[in-house]
Amino acid sequence: MTEIYTDSDTERAQLSNKTVAVLGYGSQGHAHAQNLDDSGIDVVVGLRPGSRSREHAQDDGLRVATPSEAAAEADIVVMLIPDTVQPSVYETIASELDPGDTLQFAHGFNIHYGQIEPPEDVDVTMVAPKGPGHLVRRTYERGEGTPGLFAVYQDATGEASSEALAYAGAIGCTRAGVIETTFREETETDLFGEQAVLCGGVTDLIKAGYETLVDAGYSSEMAYFECLNELKLIVDLLYEGGHTEMWNSVSDTAEYGGLTRGEDVVDREAMEAILDGVQSGEFAREWIAENQASRPAYRQHRRAEQNHEIEEVGDRLRELFAWSEQAEPAPADD
Ligand code: NDP
Ligand code: MG
Ligand code: MG
After folding, report:
1. Strand (E) positions, the chain?
2. Fewer CB within 10 Å, N- or C-terminus of the chain?
């Protein structure tokens, strides 16, 4: 079993004389910067001139500078801007990294696929909460924490690992628990998960189920409820109590039918091909090229998804559930 690190494993004093530059003030950035600040760590937020985030950071009482100014005074530079812009912003701050400084990430893509190549005399680490920024901030304010990961890619000082744990402590993650991973494992499992299961797999499963029912003459409203709306109830059960609790909560008919038929819809070879594309770097090369070409395929896929019939049916039916949004307001920052 992987070891789980908690507060008692961290040396918080390790950050007491250090300045942290948080580059970006979006989902992760606002949460890391405010939690560090509340933990008594010296923080400066690095934002480009004219940044729309500047006012938010200043309103939250934080010091703001440009990314290169922030990196110049910092001992730890944390890359919390979108992954696709990190390589170009890195170019503007690279000369500010002094020997013994730390370059820290919350996702391994740019290091693992060689889009950022830091000098050998800096520590390169990752601290990644397993949750969106608003949760990282909200749990911290309640005295709790979001579980997270840490990893060391390059340890120039011999202290990379304990410093990353101290940082995970300062943003609240070790209150819940932190596990050690590698840049490779985090990057490849993250990409595989979002492509095959979480984002790609699930939406395609929903669309295929919906289309199968509608093409067979069933009403689009019934198909929507069956294939999309009820998914939340099932996922909540899985999240709370695993497969056993979910199977216990549905009818025996659902359990028998699901257990005997479910595997027919999953193509394991296709999943392995997706993992191959992640491991070989083929997906990364495709996505980097797509960005360099201003995302033509991305825009096309996005448009097709937005124009799918299930979206129009869903917009209409979700109004029947307006009460559910009042019960738990969706945070605007993610
Ligand atoms: P966001 O998209 O929320 O970052 C937005 C911030 O980046 C804004 O402050 C924006 O400032 C700034 N920014 C955008 N473009 C540029 C640019 N060209 N130059 C300078 N600043 C720019 O990022 P996330 O928080 O979602 O992701 C940050 C990192 O955390 C990524 O590596 C991601 O993979 C990782 N991560 C994200 C999680 C999440 O839940 N979102 C979970 C775990 C890890 P401006 O106002 O100037 O546009
Ligand atoms: Mg420095
Ligand atoms: Mg992901």
Report:
1. 4-5, 19-23, 42-46, 63-65, 76-79, 102-105, 123-129, 148-154, 178-180
2. N
